[in-house]
Amino acid sequence: xxxxxxxxxxxxxxxxxxNTTDEELEQTLATAHQLYLGWRKHNDLEERKxxxxxxxxxxxxxxxxxxxIMTKDxxxxxxxxxxxxxxxxxxxxxxxAHADKFLAPDIIATTSGRAKVIKQSLGTLVAVEPWNxxxxxxxxxxxxxxxxxxxxxxxxxxxxxxxxxxxxxxxKEAGAPEGSLTNLFLSYDQVNKAIADKRVAGVCLTGSERxxxxxxxxxxxxxxxxxxxxxxxxxxxxxxxxxxxxxAKVAPVARLxxxxxxxxxxxxxxxxxKDYDRFLEIMKDAFxxxxxxDPLDPSTTLAxxxxxxxxxxxxxxxxxxxxxxxxxxxxxxxVDLEGQFFMPxxxxxxxxxxxxxxxxxxxxxxxxxxxxxxxxxxxxxxxxSYGLGNTVFSKDYDHAExxxxxxxxxxxxxxxxxxxxxxxxxxxxxxxxxxxxxxxxGIDEFMNKHLIYEARQ
Length: 457
Ligand code: NAP
What we know:
Elements: E1 3-6, E2 13-17, H1 22-42, H2 45-61, H3 63-74, H4 78-103, E3 106-108, E4 113-121, E5 124-128, H5 134-148, E6 152-155, H6 161-173, E7 181-184, H7 188-196, E8 200-206, H8 209-221, E9 225-229, E10 234-238, H9 244-256, E11 266-272, H10 276-288, H11 308-323, E12 327-330, E13 345-348, E14 365-371, H12 374-382, E15 386-387, E16 389-393, H13 397-405, E17 411-414, E18 429-430, E19 433-434, H14 439-444, E20 447-455
Parallel strand pairs: 5-6, 5-8, 6-7, 8-9, 10-11, 10-16, 11-14, 13-14, 16-17
Antiparallel strand pairs: 1-2, 3-4, 4-20, 9-19, 12-13, 15-18
Helix pairs in contact: 2-4, 2-5, 3-4, 3-6, 4-5, 7-8, 9-10
């Protein structure tokens, strides 16, 4: 497998990276394990907090440089890439501020004696990460685990190697000891080999169901703790009492941000019959106003997709949807630009027997569904293999919350599109995976909750 930056706007190969050898993998495992043992002995939490503070400074200082690397790797809009660097810096602030609290022992109430749970690191982790948020995805797992004292070996997506290396270099520059985060250009076999290695304690993956199932199988076979952050087919439900000015402002962005390549993008818009035409007009109006072009140009509003492969896959999915009865309300025409652009598209009339009904479309394609009632909206939202997030619009917060609680997902956003902040747990249920990242829940995943107990004599 080739690790290459192929700029999806110019289609030029910007850089190719050498694959990691087995010897380099072995060396990395040995270094990371020694680091883990050293941290277990000396703790060094204060030093690790300082490194993360330094990392936050470096990210803020060089945000443009890092944003440009991401844009060239996978095509995202430069403004969105800069926002991503800022978000990663905010993770640094958050975990440094809360480290002592998250790692403090829990005293267990028991009348049988005395008991406490101390929080300890587990060992070296393997992180397998995707390309859609090249810095954010790494930051989400690296920062909390570094605070805990779990070294990390990173296998990032083969189409954003420059971003992964830049993040790892920033960590080194921040003063992290060797082995803290090592970015390797691994084959799938080498990932399996690393997971099976005795010195590795766990694996976290963000990616597709296909990638997740394979890695989880290997982790299971080797009894390694793992977390899976997988795809989504998030519903956007507009209730009878929604604020339509807000819907008009939020809905198009909830689909088109990052060119629609977000696990939690709103993908299925569920609208009451009486509002259906109005909603379609709103989406068409917004979709027809996008400006495609150079993602490094701040005036561009829709970026190319990340690769030719991603564009071909999405086109295949739209074609399949249409072949099975879906109607194209807007879009689905070729874009006269060299890069991997996909015209924003609105599909309607997708029936449950359409193979695309239960498939994630990773790009600027909105599926719009008409329902007769709120109950039908909830039923439709839950008729999915996925369970990542959903969005509910209502002027009455309690009403929206009641509906949100009925949707089988790990996250619900009310009167807003999807969001990710350091203090909010991120993750899903069903085929969207298991485990949580960010917040106190995220730092907890790869921690040994070690009980110390003395029974009353
Ligand atoms: P993907 O193909 O599964 O790739 C993700 C990562 O897994 C890449 O580093 C990939 O490496 C690696 N990988 C895939 N198969 C593997 C295997 N058998 N062994 C070892 N590594 C393997 O996913 P993607 O299509 O690039 O990413 C988009 C998906 O991620 C979407 O479904 C999206 O919804 C999901 N996602 C979920 C979240 C969340 O938090 N739930 C967040 C972001 C994205 P290569 O690049 O070398 O193939």
